[in-house]
From TrEMBL:
Residues 109-238 form the GntR C-terminal domain. This is FadR family transcriptional regulator. PANTHER family: TRANSCRIPTIONAL REGULATOR, GNTR FAMILY, UXU OPERON TRANSCRIPTIONAL REGULATOR. InterPro entries: GntR_C (IPR011711), TF_FadR/GntR_C (IPR008920), WH-like_DNA-bd_sf (IPR036388), WH_DNA-bd_sf (IPR036390). It comes from the Bacteria. GO terms for molecular function: DNA binding.
Amino acid sequence: MPATKQIAEAAATSAGTAASRTETATAMIIAIAQRHAAGTRLGTKETLRTECGVSVGTFNEALALAQARGYVTMKPGPGGGIFVDEQSAIARLGNAMLALDTAEPSVPDAIRIRDALDPLLIDDAVTSAQPADIAGMRGQLERMRAALDAGEHLEFARANWALHRVIAEASPSQMLRSVYLGVLGLLEDHAVSIAGSADAPLPEYVRSRYDLHVEIVDAIAARDGERARELIALHNLNG
């Protein structure tokens, strides 16, 4: 068995049966990157995805996490592809947060930091989001709606996190994106379930959260900064 797959399987085993395919693929990408020096070209997205043996959607989410954690970077154009990144101060900070041993002291802090950064990212999204970014946001809203209708609590949360990642990626500030995605990664790593049974309808509170996110994306698409800021303040006020 290739060493990369052994590392991925060990990571999945240590995390238990709840380990997600995305986290497993992220561990594989990081393991590949750690075998090479900074600046080494690892290949194209497709060659690396094939090596990881996962779907396009899973790979893209895993690649985003590996990038946020400072292990790889993407370069466009001829000769571009996925490269081993140099560990910046921001990446080291993000990895230090992700390495915390227990959720109790770190998650509340992560939520406070996320809430403080959300208005900055919303402002950037209003001014900088491109049509493809808006389409990506609406795609995650569709995921949230499908999970809502199916009563799939964890899938709803994952789609919600993915929406916030897409909003963050619209920011032109690499530092802001890196810190925010690192904090969001910490929250994702520790959150394994949402209150309620797997087959029960999602509570009305969660339905209201879906509606609020629809309004946020609509405000971003309309370039309505004032409305978007009002909505993100309401979003963070109500958890």
